[in-house]
Amino acid sequence: MGPAGLIPGRPASHAGATLYSILDRSLLRQASDAATALRDTVAFARQAEELGYHRFWVAEHHSVPGVAGTAPTVRRPAVLI
To answer: How far apart are CA 65 and CA 28, in angstroms?
Structure first.
């Protein structure tokens, strides 16, 4: 089950529903690479959609170690597939 009040596969656009979103930064994990982090972000976005989250955001961070991608415009096409 997703966040309180959400039913998997059912839009949360019903009157009175609280809309929940997720923010992801595509973090690099130890002994991993950027490609794996981006695949994890895509999998996370798909799971969020299945659980009925309203939006899936990707963060923009420049010159931050441990982040696989700095520009959401680069990651967005992969997440939208």
So the answer is: 9
Alpha-carbon distance of 75 to 58, in angstroms, equals: 8
Cα separation of 57 and 23, whole Å?
A: 5
Q: How far apart are CA 66 and CA 53, in angstroms?
A: 26
The residue among 17 and 74 whose pLDDT is bigger is 17
- Cα 39 to its chain centre, rounded Å, is 11
DSSP 41: H
What digits encode the pLDDT tens for the residues 22-58?
Answer: 998 888 888 888 888 888 988 999 999 999 999 998 8
**Closest C-alpha among 70, 11, 67, 7 to residue 37:** 67
